[in-house]
Amino acid sequence: MKQAIFRLDAGKNNGLGHLMRCRALADALHSLGVECTFACKIIDSDICLSPHRLHSIENEEEFLVLSKAYQWIIVDHYEYSSEELYVLYKHPDSHLIVLDDIGNRGHLYADLIINPLAKSRAFTSYQLSPEAQLLLGPEYCLLGDSFQKLKLPDFKQREHLVITFGGSDVSALSLPVAEALADFKPLSQLEVVVITGGAYVNVSVIEQYCVQHNYQHLHNVQNMAEVFSHAKVAISAAGSTIFELACCGVPSVFAVVADNQWLAAREHSALGWCRSIDCRKEKPVNKLLESAQSLVADENLEHLSQTARSIVDANGAQRVAAAIINL
Q1: In three state form, how does the secondary structure of the chain look?
Q2: Average pLDDT, the chain
Q3: Where are the domains positioned within the chain?
Q4: What pLDDT is attached to residue 47?
């Protein structure tokens, strides 16, 4: 049996987006006959990983020993240094695959590097091993099979405003944005859907607020593709959700709440289908809502939706899985 092991942590500080994109790749590998294991110290999620295995580890020394038994080692972890990657890279009977969207670790030792951003200056300067292959661009973003199977309704039928700030909402923006929405009448007259992730801590508070204001509240959604398919516009954290919303053709305003999100938000904003606002040091709630309101008023909104869909399809995991098999 061919085997792959994923090293990631999906806790409040790491983002559940890492878990979701690794799960998408594991599903694609499994369809090609590869048995996948997730090795984690932290995993703050009740998402079912079946048919994949979950192996709890205490430290990196334990993972180093464990990984020697696998044909492919897949690392999606910002804290892995160049030196730690080199140790894994030197495994004689393994291939090392690294998911990276920062480009700040110096020499990146790997057989295969996956980055869903295009060939921008930040990543064409990678210091690479001689044999390394690069898979760069949105055609390699990792989306789950629910996005592949989705049939999108006509854009003119969409009437939802979706508000979502990730698995834990680390910047605590969900409630302030929902509270300020009443001051933006054309925007608030859409059907408002507020989504909170599995690690969100104030579920009862935001649930009560949404009930009082006739907003729909969804918690720990298992099929984001279905929810996004009905969205006319979205206000979202700028994590891996960027690619999900693009795939569903949802013009969006992205709140950059972490350093690793800035490059993706900037790149996609330049493509015209979305806008981004830096929220790392403050909570510019009104700016987020003003940008969303201007999007809704844009007479070219449907064209922006079409632009987004032309950038991202749902087949990236299959492309990456095939490249891994061919190493």
Answers
A1: CEEEEEECCECCCCCHHHHHHHHHHHHHHHCCCEEEEEEECCECCCCCCCCCEEEECCCHHHHHHHHCCCCEEEECCCCCCHHHHHHHHCCCCCEEEEECCCCCCCEECCCEEEECCCCCHHHHCCEECCCCEEEECHHHCCCCHHHHCCCCCCHHHCCEEEEECCCCCCCCCHHHHHHHHHHCHHHHCCEEEEEECCCCCCHHHHHHHHHHCCCEEEECCCCHHHHHCCEEEEEEECCCHHHHHHHCCCCEEEEECCHHHHHHHHHHHHCCCEEEEECCCCCCHHHHHHHHHHHHHCCCHHHHHHHHHHHCCCCHHHHHHHHHHCC
A2: 90
A3: 2-143+314-325, 147-311
A4: 61
As averages over each run of 10 residues, the pLDDT of the chain (327 residues) reads 89 68 96 95 68 91 94 92 91 93 79 83 65 90 92 95 92 96 89 91 94 95 94 95 97 93 92 96 96 95 97 96 96
Which CATH class for the 2-143+314-325 domain? alpha beta
